[in-house]
Each structure stands twice: as C-alpha cells, then as structure tokens.
Task: structure prediction
Amino acid sequence: MISGTTKICGVMADPVEHSLSPLMQNFYAEKTGVDFAYMPLKVAVEDVEAAVLGAYALNFVGMNVTVPHKQQVMPYLKEIDEDAKAIGAVNTLVRMEGGYKGYNTDAAGLLRAMREAKIQIAGEDCILIGAGGAAKAAAYVLAKEGAQTVTLLNRNVGHAMVLAEEINHRFGRPVMTVLALSEYALLPKKSYLAIQSTSVGMYPHSDHAPIEDPDFYRMIHTGVDIVYNPMETKFMQYVSAAGGTVMNGFTMLLYQGITAFELWNPGVKISPQIVEEAGMQMRSRLKG
Ligand code: ATR
Result:
C-alpha cells in the first residue's frame, strides 16, 4: 500500500516498457516489508537534466538509470562514487544533502554473482570479449579483483585499445592486452576464465556467438555470458560442450538490483530465499 510515508524510487529509461526493475524492486519491498514504491519513468534524452532535478525536487529517494542515460546523467549529480567514476557510467542515484550521488551497481552485481557461483578471479588468466559499456564494468571487476592477465578480444581494435589503456593506467600494471576478435587463434594456449560482454547471441539472435569455432572454447575452463536472454546462450553452449563451467547474466541482473535496493534502504538485507523467488518471477517474464 502506498501511503504518505512511502519512499519513492523509479527507473529512468527510454524505452522503459520492457524493464524488469519495477517488478523486481517492488517484490523486494513487499518481501522485506519496507515502505517503498518503484515506478517506470520514461525520459527522453533531452529531458535528462530536468528529470534528475525534478525527481530530487519531488523527494524521490533514488533512481535507476539505464540505456541510454548512464553517461548523460553524470553532470547533474552532486557526487559520484569511485567505482562509477572509474567505469564512467552510473546506473543508480541515491539521495543525499543537495543532490544525488551516482553509483554503478553493474560491476558490484557481476562480482556478487561470480562470488555466488564460486568463480575465482584473483590470479586467473582471463579473456574479455567486447569493449562496450558492459565490458568496461567487467574489465574493472577483473582488474580490481586481481586477474593475472586479461586479453581483450574485440571486433574494433581501436575501441579495445582505449579500454585497455584506461584500465592499465588506473591499476598501474599492464594487466590488459588487446587482440582483434578474428585473431583469437593467437591466444597463448592456457586455461582461461572468459567473459562475453557483447550483444551477440541476445534474443532474438540466439543462434549466434561472437566466435563460432569449437576449438577456441577448449581453452575456457569457465565462461560467463553477460547476456541473460536466452538463459543459455550459444556462447555458453560452446563452453559447456568443451567441458567448461558456465554462468549467464541473469544473476548479475538480480544482484545489481539488490545492491541498488540496499543503497536506498540501508540496513535492509535480501535473503537468499527472496533472491530465488525474485529470480523465478523475472524468468517467467522473459521472452526467448
Ligand atoms: P553495451 O553497452 O551493451 O556493452 P555497446 O557499448 O554498444 O553496448 O558495445 C557493444 C559491444 O559489442 C562492442 O564491443 C561491439 O564491438 P565493436 O567495438 O567492434 O563495435 C560488440 N559487438 C556488437 N555487435 C557485434 C558483432 N556482430 N560482432 C562482434 N562484436 C559485436
């Protein structure tokens, strides 16, 4: 029940109609008994500033920000968390004195999901496929958690160089190197943890993977796909067929939302039982 004391949050996006966040966040509120409501807010690119200032004026506790506003929102914030600054994108706003503070819970969500799946990063040789927004969060997590090496494979080598240089500079060690996607056969023969962060293989293009060569997948002991629709991507099928362990992006999606809910409601914890129930509800809404 919404009352005079209900904390209000929402997700700013365009389009917003397919967002699973309202379902997920209102479910957490109901299950934890927090007086909280979360709404879909369709905001056009040219209205981002007005939307952020307006939400603050209307006493919104916070906001999620998604495509295409994750960078555009940054100039209108009072403060930006260190991780979000490093990743260069914000997906969660939290109300503070005088404005919102921006966070990036995508990286935290990926890390929590990988920990949950008992996937180790420290000391690992890693492959990261893709160099877009999702790759940036993944690269940051891998470097920060102590990966031994990260080879960035991308179609456009220029995009990959920019990301690799940024990460190496930030962490003060040459952890990241770049290869063109088509040059994957030049990878040293090792056993890798691989993260797939491109949109290749996403519904409705579910019968594609960024590399269509079963030999490549023999080098991968664990494959993480950031795509969550379909639940089992072609990339994951290749990794499994070669004997590797797989994880998809669904748990990351769940945990980025949980991390945001916890930022808006300090002290409230979402139990593993609630996480599981939320996952079931959300899965039933996915097409593909
Ligand atoms: P996101 O924010 O979801 O990561 P993005 O910033 O547009 O989206 O990044 C998309 C990533 O997927 C990029 O690495 C892109 O490769 P390029 O840098 O070469 O453009 C990659 N990508 C998209 N379509 C691809 C395709 N058909 N084959 C290979 N890589 C693709």
User: Anything to note?
Assistant: Residues 130-135, 154-156, 159, 181, 197-200, 210 surround 2'-monophosphoadenosine-5'-diphosphate (CB under 6 Å). The chain has a mean pLDDT of 96.
